[in-house]
Amino acid sequence: MSSSLGFPRSMSLSLPKTFSFSPSSSSEGKSCKKSIPSLDRYLTNEGHRLVVSYIRNTQIQNNIIGGQLFKIEENDIDELIKSYKGTPTPVFHTLRYDDLHLALHEMKNLSKLLKGDKITNIHTLQLTKNQLCGTPLKLFFNALRKNSTVTKLDLSFNFLGDREVKWLAKVLKKNQTLREVYLASNKIGVEGAKLLAKALKENNSLERFSIEQNRIGSQGAIAFAEMLKTNKTLKYIHFGGNNLGIGGTQVICEALKVNQTLLSLSLDVNNIGKDGARLIGGALLMNKTLTHLYLGRNNIQNEGLQHICRGLDHPDSAIIYLDLEFNGIGGEGGSGGESLAKLLDSKSSNVPRAINLVNNPVGDEGCEQLAKGFYKNTTLESIILSHCNIGLRGITAISESLIANRGLQNLTLDNNNAIGADGHALLADALEKNTTIKGVQLDYNFADWEHAGNSIQASLTRNHFLQQEKYAIASQILVAARTMFHSFPPKKLSSSLMHLEFHALPFEIRENILFALDANNVLTHSQKISIINFARRKDTLGTSRESFLLQAFHVYYPLTLTVRLWPTEASDFDSSDRY
């Protein structure tokens, strides 16, 4: 007996044509009835079958999306996939199954979904914290080998060991669709590292790969280093928390000297020390592509920072973001601040745009040295100085440098309790004179904080709108200058006459007309001249707005800036993010 809308077919057809609905009581104490017409008068046998099928498939689909695979039988997946044939839009795009302790039955269902790849169209699979290992993963990886839609796979915080990695390696050799694979916090050892590295030599699609918090050690690092010498697609790799030591660091650094595609490298928590920092500094002198470098929690100290800074002090350095948190940098008499100051003040280097110094004992002396560096610097956009033992002397030095600085956009100073009310007041006064910084993170943990807080917020808001106005005026001058200096094919006689009239004017008058567009004088004289010279060159036609502003202002800053930590890469600073 087939069912319809949850009822046996015979019962469904025998139901009365109306149902009575009686609430217990109304607000006036009276009952009310509402007639609901039966669906049966509108449905044929085929109609009932289609409605029941639709409801059933919708329930299965919702269980899949909600991670309730245990409620589904294998034949349910087959029927669902069959019903999707001919569907023009993707059904599943992202499946997040975190901390569900997926069993064998559930992984079988997921594997069936992967086999119907062109129909189910799964792009992202997040399977973290599921204690996955053994046979369930073997079934899953076998299905993934033939899948052609999944681009991102996250298996972090599971029980993957070298046995499971053997199956994953086969996937990476065959599957050329995956772009991101995350294996953080598993049980992968040296043999697993060798298998993965060998597979990545053959893989031509993977761009982002994380094996942090595993057990690969220096021997596993050797295998990955050999891979990095030949791999042409990986842009992002995370080796954090693998106890690479000096031996592992050395081979990775040798690979960095020849690799030309890697953009982001994380070596945090690897017991590198100052000797490892020296090796990294040497590699940075030769590498011209790496943009993001993470060295947190490696105890490199002041001497290690000196090596890193020397590695960055050359015109071909591409580093954008430098993470140095928890490294024992600074302290009274320390040279950490001095090393960074020299780097920031260096005219021969491309200074990083963001530096993270969280939980380093920079102190007042370190701040005084550091402030000398970014006193005139226009390249550094963001510096994070949380938990850095900064007091009144240190904040005084920073405040004085901000008056002259025209580059810094974001300054983080929270959890430095010794700054106090006087330090906040000094910073507020300095920001009234600064016209570029748009973000400051502080702790207002003193009695009379409201006045300083309001003053700082007013300065940041003013700077934000001022920067918007600068970029808008620069663009207006560019458009007007191109109209005046280039001979565009006229569509109408009037526009042609207007163009000829402009050309008849002396250059000085045209220049003054363009200058007049900046009614509030938000741009400097040299900036306006730079814009006009840019507009006069025909080879600049079609240039992106970001490229134009970079050339017009020599530096270009985003209207908003979020300092992203892991995961990140150079695309974080593309125009789509920065505008």
TrEMBL record:
The domain of life for this entry's organism is Eukaryota
| Signal peptide segment | none
* Cross-referenced Pfam families: LRR_6
Q: Which InterPro entries does this UniProt record tie to the protein?
A: Leu-rich_rpt, LRR-containing, LRR_dom_sf
Give the source lineage, highest ranks first. Answer: Eukaryota, Fungi, Fungi incertae sedis, Mucoromycota, Glomeromycotina
Q: What is this protein called?
A: 3814_t:CDS:1
Among SUPFAM superfamilies, the record links this protein to: RNI-like
